[in-house]
Amino acid sequence: APDIPVIDQAYSKLSNSITVEWRAVPGATNYMLTAQDGDSLVETVVKNSPGTVTGLKPATLYRITVRSINSGGKSQPSPFRKVKTVLAAPILSVRSLSCDSIAVSWKAVHMAAGFSVSLMRSDGLGRMLKQNTTNTSLIFTNLDPGALYTIKAYAWNANGMPGDDFTYNQRTSPNAPVDVKVAFDSGALRAVVSWMPTEGAAAYSATVSSGLLKLRCNTSSASCMVPPLQCGSEYHVSVTAYNDAGPSEPTDAVSLKTIPCAPVNISIEEDEPGRLLVSWSSVTLGHYYVVFVKSDDGLEVHCNTSYTHCHFQSDCGFTYFISVFAYNKAGQSPLGDVFNYTTAPCCPSDFRAVFMSSDTVRVTWAPVRGADLYETRAAGGSGVVLCRDTATACTLSALQCSTPYNISVYSFSEARGSNTSCAPQYLTTAPCSPEIKNISKEGLSVISVQWQPNNEEATYVVTARGEAGLWHCTSTRNSCTLMDLPCGSAFSVSAVARSPAGQSFPSYSIPLETAPCCPNDLTLTQVTQSVTNISWSVGRGARTYVTTLGSAKGQAKCHTLQTSCLLGCITCGTNYTVSLRAISATGLTSSCTYQGYSSSACCPSGVKLYRLSNNGIRVFWRASDETINYKADLHGSKGNFSCTPSLGLSHCDITKIPCGDVYTVVVAPVTDKGPKLTLFSSFCPKKIYS
């Protein structure tokens, strides 16, 4: 085993340990330190000197020994040294009483005769403060607000030996913030509170109070937003700074008046036509009021007043949206209820009444603002006629003719009812329809029409309407005459009454037919000596025709649907009168007279032929009328030959006739028809001559 070490010195710097110094022992690899207090023993193995025994009790006397150790074993303990551990450190309880003071307290320490406490800013600024006391508490004052201080304290014994020290960092509470400002957001009913940051403050709390109501906002910055406030209230705003030492004193309260609440009990009425009165109840903190009135066409007006009512100009048929705001220095009150007020609809403009007939009037007007429905009323006669519609036109029917009426158009709206102040129009309905009593013929083209007058101060117009055109006559009495009506035409005759109020319905139509027209052209053609063909142009309106040829010797008559007719039993050489009757389908007749007609002259009788020579012939006949000339015609294949005797003779000769031929011989009268001679040879008998 190694040699026994020798302790040079042993001392205690900490209350739970003793440090030992010794001279090194050759061959020793470790050393065992032993501290003994009565029955209590604490051992510690160390490598070399110095060594420290820990886990000891403060202010306790220990016997300290050292033993050297190697692989051969342990040496004997060295001579002991008695060493007492120093006093335990006081356990501090520290708090900041205010922004410039710190209170330090501790419990009594065993064997302590006094205490030493020192304080200094942790950042090294300023001077260190130190106090010795036998008490267990003390207060440091006149400190910097919000500064971090390091506090060190230890106890000493009766010999003045200091014990363990105890270090504690404590910050003073912050100073109250300064330059507190309140910015009020009237739209959101919130307030932003701001201040100058104060040293050492870790957080801030802004308090907004009104009576029992308290609102807070906490922040680490130099501003915060207070929760929503109430309108029409006055608040007191203060700010407190905080750190781990506690709160500062609250700042002096700043007054905050919020915006006024929206006015209530709003009433709207038209105190007189064209003027709206808006009134409301006064509100707390309201300095003045602004009323906004916006019409449904987008136009907006406003009224600024310190009273609780306002007047506005209004127009008919408009809907007004009305809102009332209260104001003070904080701003405008929140939007309250928006009221709408609809004025009575306007009276219809461009009012026109036009008669569609004697008992029907069409009323039109321009649309007006605010009208949902229109009522048209016609009062007169024996009652009232009504028409209700959303359209801007109405037809009033079943009115009494020739009657004055009072016509009014009223506008209605669901919101405001009717506007019954609209001026009426006065008008008289058109005349009543006349009734035709009689139509009489006063001539070929003259018709007299009579009717029953049933209107006052009316002019009557009679119209004959047909394919041939229109014919009119006018009278203020009960009859008039239609002149120059064309023949062969059918008409519908009606009458109307006219007055400044309009025109009546036409009367019931009476049919009228004029006699058929006489044909313009009539032609007679003799077919044989006893048969004549008569033809004529169409007579307008005629259905059948009766033609007559009359003479002293008798007459020939024909009734036909056609425009021609063959008349027999015609006497030759006779002058006839020519007449025609045109008859309509209803039996109306027109008698027509034309130029006389003469039938062809009579053929001679007793015609005989005598040969004169080989190439000649004499023709004899017996004349029917000595005043008529005759002519003999000879027709053959080798030529045609003729002879005409002098007036009064009844024979003539034809010479130089080629022989060996067969000839036809005709003797016919010759009449003078103007510049031409007309031969009626076709009607007379023929003789054959070979």
How would the blueprint of this fold be written?
Layout: E1 7-14, E2 17-22, E3 30-37, E4 40-46, E5 51-54, E6 61-70, E7 73-74, E8 81-84, E9 92-98, E10 101-106, E11 114-121, E12 129-133, E13 137-140, E14 148-156, E15 162-171, E16 178-185, E17 190-196, E18 203-210, E19 213-219, E20 223-226, E21 234-243, E22 246-247, E23 254-257, E24 267-272, E25 275-279, E26 288-295, E27 300-305, E28 309-313, E29 319-328, E30 331-332, E31 339-342, E32 349-357, E33 360-366, E34 373-380, E35 383-389, E36 393-396, E37 404-413, E38 417-419, E39 425-428, E40 435-441, E41 447-452, E42 459-466, E43 469-475, E44 479-482, E45 490-499, E46 502-503, E47 510-513, E48 522-526, E49 532-536, E50 544-551, E51 554-560, E52 564-567, E53 575-583, E54 589-598, E55 605-613, E56 616-622, E57 629-636, E58 639-643, E59 651-655, E60 663-673, E61 676-679, E62 686-689
Antiparallel strand pairs: 1-2, 2-5, 3-4, 3-6, 6-7, 6-8, 9-10, 10-13, 11-12, 11-14, 14-15, 16-17, 17-20, 18-19, 18-21, 21-22, 21-23, 24-25, 25-28, 26-27, 26-29, 29-30, 29-31, 32-33, 33-36, 34-35, 34-37, 37-38, 37-39, 40-41, 41-44, 42-43, 42-45, 45-46, 45-47, 48-49, 49-52, 50-51, 50-53, 53-54, ...
